[in-house]
Amino acid sequence: MPKKNIRASIQFGALPYRTRADGRPQVMLLTSRETRRWVIPKGWAIKGLKPADVAEREAYEEAGLVGHIVGKKPVGSFHYEKLLPNGRLLCEVSVFLLRVHHQVADWPERAQRETEWFDPIDAAGLVQESGLADIIRETILAHVSEAGGA
User: Which of 100, 113, 117 shows the shortest CA–CA distance to 16?
Assistant: First the structure.
């Protein structure tokens, strides 16, 4: 495919996690609106917001999550093809680690999505994008080990 026909866009996503009372980490995934695949919250840049703030906002809007971004930089990025009415768009998602404090009872996209907490290895097996699976496995396990919560 010629380069001029490839459109790429940047999105910002949150990898939501929490640590259970027994010290084991969990990752929250949610379903996409159209295909019902397991994904992480993500969205387009918003004028006036830093990328990490966009990721945090998307986590609230799509999954009702309240928490804080860990670190100042993305923990990784992955690519996926977004299906649009007029074709496909290659998207790169910069992923920020979101430590979840709680999930609110009601949020903007609650009726459009399902959310569930998973063991990181299980979550990595449920997402279709191999790059996202790698980020889930490597980031959550490494972060919890470094934080002493494993």
Answer: 100
